[in-house]
Amino acid sequence: MKALVLPALERPEGMTTHDYAFARLRQAIMVGAFRPGTSVTIRGLAEALESSPTPVREALRQLTSIGALHFLENRRIVVPRITPARFEELISLRIVLESHAARRAVAHLSDRQIDRIVAIDEAIEAAILAGRKAAALIANQDFHRQIYMANPDQIAMPLIESVWLQLGPILGIAMEHVAELYVVDRHREAIDALRRRDEDAVAEAIGADIREGIGGFDQQAIAKLLSLAG
Amino acid sequence: MKALVLPALERPEGMTTHDYAFARLRQAIMVGAFRPGTSVTIRGLAEALESSPTPVREALRQLTSIGALHFLENRRIVVPRITPARFEELISLRIVLESHAARRAVAHLSDRQIDRIVAIDEAIEAAILAGRKAAALIANQDFHRQIYMANPDQIAMPLIESVWLQLGPILGIAMEHVAELYVVDRHREAIDALRRRDEDAVAEAIGADIREGIGGFDQQAIAKLLSLAG
DNA sequence: TTTGTAAAAATATGATCACAAAATAAGAAT
DNA sequence: ATTCTTATTTTGTGATCATATTTTTACAAA
Predict the structure, then answer these.
(1) Using one digit for the tens of pLDDT, what is the confidence trace for B184-224?
(2) Per CATH, is B84-229 categorized as 1.20.120.530?
């Protein structure tokens, strides 16, 4: 049993052990730290997190509720495997959910907020140029999140993050096998549409961004990645 | 502290205490057994379920992950309140998610499966005529679920159920204040479209079903319901 | 080598308990 | 009566432990 290492994460003062375990495990999955098919144990993670089974088990149960992990009938806990068909489903769900969320956020975005989103986009490009893959991924998610969250009554964000989590493990593999990031994104187009408050154009740009970005790997490349993940 | 009663639910042999607690609480929320704003306690539910805090807390944590409950900063656990704006967001999300899920299920539905869906639709009408509101609600959900689940690689169902759960408490209130159910549904139209394997028509019918069904209460009626829920 | 069986180890589960935080109740001061 | 303070009760949190299930290992039989 090799010792388990999780990506570091700051623990704010006053945060409960459970909340910290959940946040840290969630981030680990989100950035692809676990490979598909990996099995984890409650005790093992409790040790890695320097706590006890109880709060860890609660965190794991939550993660299964949002599709990030699977409890098998055996009571084994595994990182879900992804088939090409499942991958395609996830991407199409992203497109539907996020173009919808983007459209409904447009009316609530102030110029100030758009400026901040532009700054995030610049951070993404800087991270890509520096080869900081995980940082680029996080910043890219933040770009999308800042748009969708502008809608104060927004409901979709947790669902979208659930899809992101389910894509996490495959992203991890993709990052391993892609030497340099040449991310094609439509962020500029989305920003221009936001500035014009053009809801249709925003929805279209976000949809295209997803389709041509992570979802844009051709089927052959995906199949190869997924076979490596087996 | 009045004793808490939960809708009954059969417990399959071999089901863990945690799974049972989750299933029962989930169903209770889904059929509107809890009013918005209600606060629950771990110990109280453990007593009602004749178990201990540990498995109940795990179930509650899962339910918060899918938006069915809220852990406040106070550490109090409450059934979320719903504003008119939130309600509208939920309905629009249902439309987007479910018409998408329905469209992608069409190609996988066999004639046999469609026959079963027709049978469910008849069960819905029977329940409505008999005034069995909760049964009608459950059957209606089953109608939708059977369609979406026909897609074997389907990912959206858990997200859709999350939205259903968030609508549960308002449905409970609606059921209390509507003497007789006169549910307008587009199920026949959806079934006809399924038989023709017409994806666009199926998506359209499902969208209309949601829009004109639960979502079809006019804004004034919703506002009244929501004020009662406060 | 392969297959089947039994012992051992590892693991998930759920109840319990000590502790901390929060809410409630009770009483005093204004 | 109202407000503030204090004491009591209630409640969430997290560690621990006994138990049951599962997995792994060890070993015998084919």
Answers:
(1) 788 999 999 999 999 999 999 999 999 887 655 656 666 67
(2) yes
Q: Where along chain B do its domains lie? A: 17-78, 84-229
Tell me which residue has tokens 């139209």.
B189
Task: Write the pLDDT tens digit of every residue in A29-56.
Answer: 998 999 999 999 999 999 999 999 999 9
SS3 state at B35: coil
Determine which helix (DSSP H) or strand (DSSP E) holds A104, and give its type and residue range: helix A84-105
Which ipTM value was assigned to this complex? 0.92
Cα gap A161→B64, rounded to integer Å? 15
Amino acid at residue number A43: R
- The answer to whether some atom of strand D lies closer than 7 Å to the beta carbon of B53 is yes
Write down the residue that tokens 């090799």 correspond to.
A2
Nearest 10 degrees: Cα torsion B205, B206, B208, B214? 150
Domain A17-78: which topology? Arc Repressor Mutant, subunit A (1.10.10)
By the 8 A CB rule, do B148 and B160 touch?
Answer: yes
| CB atoms B159 and A154 under 8 Å | no
Query: For residue A101, what is the nearest residue in chain B, using CA coordinates?
Result: B93
DSSP symbol at B1? -
Query: Residues of chain A with pLDDT > 70: what percent?
Result: 89
Q: How far apart are CA A50 and CA A21, in angstroms?
A: 10
Q: Report helix angle A199-212 to A84-105, nearest 10.
A: 160
- For residue A70, list its beta bridge partners: A78
Residue A131 C-alpha, separation from nearest chain B C-alpha, in angstroms? 32
CB B196 within 7 Å, strand D:
no
Cβ contacts of B20 on chain A, cutoff 8 Å: none
CB atoms within 10 A of CB B35: 16
